[in-house]
Write a structure and sequence with these properties.
The chain is mainly beta and 587 residues long. The protein has 3 helices and 47 strands. The longest helix is centred in the first third of the chain and has 12 residues.
Length: 587
């Protein structure tokens, strides 16, 4: 009975398995696994910057005190705490594994960066990736949905890797070549097989030389509850905060004032989180990369940004160069600006080309949505779900570069001349149940049945709010906490992220042991891959054990062609530890 209750509960919560869904499964990714899926750690060792000679007087330099404080942690996890004050830096801050930089809150702790226009980024979290010449070539093609890759490698569970291939047919810009791939964590591995934590989103034909590049990421580092302000302009492609080859890192309650290229940039990073932040203003708003808010690029995969505010930027949320599987939910953007006419028509939600794919924008409120393809093709199945525009509307440009968008349940609010537009061009789009001034577009399409495409339970920041944008909700009545916070006159950041932030089901590689089921969904057969000896049991909805066997060599083939279609619980045991996950059996 308890097992049946567990199945029923999972069916009710799972957006990917619910019968009440509007978006076909083949046009989705599993967005429940984006972002941090384990609680943000709160390291016990906290060091006060003032105890190392730091000063918040806005004149004393703080680079050496910061370096000394980090050194005092002796490589262990810890927090460098900045009490209320104004702290000046002439050089960047560098984060390492398990390091938190924390203030007292954005109204009270400010870090000023004047880098003399000679260095690009103010705060940097940077891991490393092996050179392409040292990549591990796949020994056979891989297709969408695969979680088992074939390659002779020395990868082991917990490692991070990037799958890439020769992508010049997909990538328009030379600087973005090699980015149309995906980032993975390794769950299990032999000398010729690698089980990864996410199904492959794009096909990788063997003729395109698919290969794995090992990443040594910065893990579990974060910035919390402070403000940064940049003082030096005219730095090309320089961000206030850069996460490059980083994993499970976070920004929580961070205000960022004035940027060059972008406020927050994620390059080649995975499972990172941006929550409750406020990014606003830039030194310039012209072309060639100026005045961006959040940028996800260079294969960044499965990150999540929610409950943030963006103001007075050229592009508030921009995805390009192979970003895939990311979620941007319930963010508020206002007052867009660029140097073109009209100067308030800049896209705040932007797909910028070079093949971003399978990204989800849900529940955001902004003025303009513009999938623009400025740098060539946007990839498949980027999804606009229950967003609202209050300016020029939802407009796709460069129709030859727009393919396979999902556009569902969005609201387009009428405005002034040439505002409130719904203009979608390109091919193979899935449009359903959008509302333009209260009229359904395309006409006759049904309202959405899904509440969310990424959370399985209501996040605490949405609790008690009327957040559901789009039909069947009354037109232009719902709101989101980020918008309410912006107009409240109170603090615009939100540091309360340590409870209720986690909304998915992914377990990090640090769990007792990992196992995988592939293919999932399965039809004629499935495999359970543990990498180590153990035992496997599979139960149906009634709690009946359908299969039980020892898994002697860590890889077990299970014929299931004649099993009834439905959901099954797969339970694996190893060295006294037990783990479980669901498998969907198809007819």
């Amino acid at each position: 009975m308890r097992l049946f209750t567990l199945f029923a509960f999972a069916l009710l919560l799972s957006p990917t398995l619910s019968k009440a869904q509007s978006l076909p499964l083949e046009r989705r990714s599993d967005w429940t696994t984006a972002g941090r899926q384990s609680p943000i750690p709160d390291y016990s060792k906290v060091l006060n910057i003032l105890n190392f000679g730091g000063s918040g007087d806005s004149a004393t330099l703080n680079e050496i005190p910061f370096q000394q404080a980090v050194a005092a942690l002796q490589g262990q996890p810890g927090v460098i705490y900045f009490p209320p004050g104004k702290y000046l830096f002439h050089n960047p801050i560098h984060l390492r594994d398990s390091l938190i930089v924390r203030g007292e809150g954005s109204p009270f702790t400010t870090l000023y960066f004047d880098l003399g226009s000679t260095q690009q980024n103010c705060i940097v979290s940077r891991g490393t990736i092996v050179h392409d010449s040292s990549a591990f070539p796949l020994t056979q093609s891989a297709v969408r949905g695969d979680t088992l890759l074939y390659a002779e490698t020395d990868l082991k569970p917990g490692d991070c890797a990037r799958l890439q291939f020769d992508d010049s047919l997909l990538i328009f810009s030379s600087w973005a070549l090699g980015s149309a791939g995906q980032l993975f964590d390794v769950l299990a591995a032999t000398d010729s097989e690698i089980l990864v934590n996410h199904p492959l989103r794009l096909d990788c034909d063997w003729a395109l030389h698919p290969r794995l590049r090992k990443i040594d990421p910065v893990d579990d580092a974060g910035l919390e509850c402070l403000k940064i302000k940049r003082l030096d302009p005219n730095v090309p492609i320089g961000s206030n905060i850069l996460f490059e080859h980083s994993r499970r890192c976070w920004l929580v309650g961070v205000e960022s004032e004035v940027c060059n290229f972008a406020h927050f940039t994620f390059d080649g990073s995975t499972h990172c989180e941006v929550y409750g932040c406020y990014a606003h203003d830039a030194f310039a708003y012209g072309g060639s990369g100026q005045g961006y808010g959040l940028v996800l690029e260079f294969t960044s995969s499965d990150n999540r940004a929610q409950n943030n505010i963006f103001k007075h930027l050229r592009h508030s949320m921009l995805l390009q160069s192979g970003a895939n599987g990311n979620v941007l939910g319930y963010n508020f953007s206002t007052d867009p600006i660029w140097v073109e006419f009209p100067n308030d028509a800049a896209g705040e939600i932007v797909l910028h080309g070079n093949y971003p794919s399978y990204n989800l924008f849900e529940g955001n409120i902004c003025e303009n949505i513009r999938p623009d393809g400025s740098h060539g093709n946007n990839g498949p199945f980027n999804t606009l779900f229950r967003n609202r525009t209050t300016g020029y509307g939802l407009i796709t440009t460069e129709p030859n570069y727009q393919h396979s968008l999902n556009i569902l349940g969005n609201e387009i609010v009428p405005g002034g001349l040439f505002q409130g537009l719904y203009v979608v061009s390109g091919t193979d789009h899935f449009e359903q149940g959008n509302s333009q001034g209260g009229a359904i577009v395309p006409a006759g399409t049904p309202a959405q049945e899904d509440t969310s495409l990424y959370f399985r339970q209501l996040p605490s920041f949405l609790s008690g709010t009327n957040f559901l944008i789009g039909p069947p909700s009354a037109f232009n009545t719902a709101s989101i906490p980020a918008k309410d916070r912006f107009f409240s006159g109170n603090e615009k950041t939100d540091c309360e992220a340590r409870t209720g932030l986690i909304v998915g089901s992914f377990e990090p590689p640090s769990a007792a042991f990992q196992f995988g089921v592939y293919p999932n969904p399965a039809s004629a057969e499935c495999f359970v891959f543990m990498g180590v000896p153990g035992a496997v049991e599979i139960f149906d909805l009634s709690g009946k054990c359908r299969f039980s066997s020892e898994n002697v060599d860590g890889k077990l083939r299970i014929p299931c062609a004649y099993w009834p279609a439905g959901l099954y619980l797969v339970r694996a045991k190893c060295a006294g530890k037990t783990a479980a996950k669901f498998m969907l059996k198809m007819p």
